[in-house]
């Protein structure tokens, strides 16, 4: 399973990358807007830190302009993946960009039918938003289960990228269901290794070791 970080903040990306297990980055216009820096500069910096797919989202809503924006974004770095909304226009732009050899990530996916069309359009990633479904009292993880099953049935090459992750249980369930990728907020990455028994166990090991008076 691949771990992406869901942020455009360079300090957070550097810190997560220092763990040595980060496979990629996802951004979106809201995340970019928090950083007060030009988009191209942010994307170049991210691509220098992480050697993996870096999603950068178009902001046009009409396919011709989406394609133009997508081509501009793809020129920034070979690892850029063009993120497009899963609308009629977004799908048309996806098909056109895929034909040109550009990788795409279809975002704002909330149904299995959207995911099925995304796979048929040849996208590299589909991004179902589990947290935002949970917010409206629909089980986001049920959607992941359905998409993984549908993609397995037809051996689609599109990778299931679980997005809008809110807590570690989303990640555990994604892994159990066989999702290919999860994009995880910085705060959630920080929680993944925490366990009180690990802390207590280490404290006891170290205090017992100190009593021996030995050194390694
Ligand atoms: C995914 O690519 C999106 O950037 C992200 O996961 C959205 O998450 P949110 O619902 O927490 O904004």
* CATH-defined topology: TIM Barrel
Distance between the termini: 35 Å
Overall radius of gyration: 19 Å
Helical content band: 40-55%
Question: How many individual helices?
Answer: 11
Order of helices and strands: EHEHHEHEHEHEHHEHEHH
Structural category: alpha/beta
Overall pLDDT score:
98
Name the bound molecules.
Answer: erythose-4-phosphate
CATH architecture: Alpha-Beta Barrel
Walk me through this protein's architecture.
The chain is of the alpha/beta class and 216 residues long. The chain has a single domain (2-212), classed as Alpha-Beta Barrel (TIM Barrel), CATH 3.20.20. Helix content is 52%, strand content 17%. The protein contains eleven helices and eight strands. The protein has helices at residues 10-17, 29-33, 39-49, 63-76, 88-99, 112-120, 130-135, 140-154, 168-177, 186-191, 196-212; strands at 2-6, 24-26, 54-57, 80-85, 104-109, 125-128, 159-162, 181-184. Strands 1-2-3-4-5-6-7-8 form an eight-stranded parallel barrel, surrounded by five helices. Helix 1 runs parallel beside helix 3. The longest helix is centred in the last third of the chain and has 17 residues, at 196-212. The chain is globular. It starts with a strand and ends with a helix. The mean pLDDT is 98. Residues 6, 26, 28, 107, 127, 129, 131-132, 163-164, 183 line the site of erythose-4-phosphate.
